[in-house]
Amino acid sequence: MFVYNDLKRSMNHFYLLVLSVFFWATSIAQTEGASKLYGYKQKVMPGTIRVDDNGREMPRKTQYNYFIYLASKTKVTPAELWIKGKVYSVTVKEVSTPVEYSHPSTANNHPKILVSKTKRQVLQLVPSLNKIQNPNPKGKSLSAKNEMVIIYKGGGKWYYKAVSKLGELDPLAMQ
User: Fold this and answer.
1) Which of 1, 12, 114, 171 is geometrically suited to a Cys-Cys bond with 43, CB 3.0 to 4.6 A?
2) Are residues 17 and 60 located together in one domain of the fold?
């Protein structure tokens, strides 16, 4: 009798574990989607330094160039892009791989590969200044913990991809 109850209790725990793993796996699948996100930022250093009437340097907000790519096995439609907690609409351009970047002031011609050669469709995502009327609340919550979040639609479902920290490219000095 006691052995039977222990066995029954163990089976209940096993089924609970299997069920938990199943729900965890399906929630990850909806969050991740069948795509890969690549994100880089490049600090832009100002050329001419602005000064006020007293000759003191006027503070400037740090500016960045962003290089963002979404590689997917299926057709996707990006809707929102969150960078450092700010939401942007997205301009999309299909690119071929590999995606390489060469710094304009570098003497050597060794480009950095931003996206390796792949058979997936690769989209370049450019943040646009067009306002989004009703930003996705999940995007906002994910952007609180991640430097970049992309929300896109694929196969009739919404997906969320996040990058905790963007890769950094060498700074670009303006003239």
Assistant:
1) 171
2) no
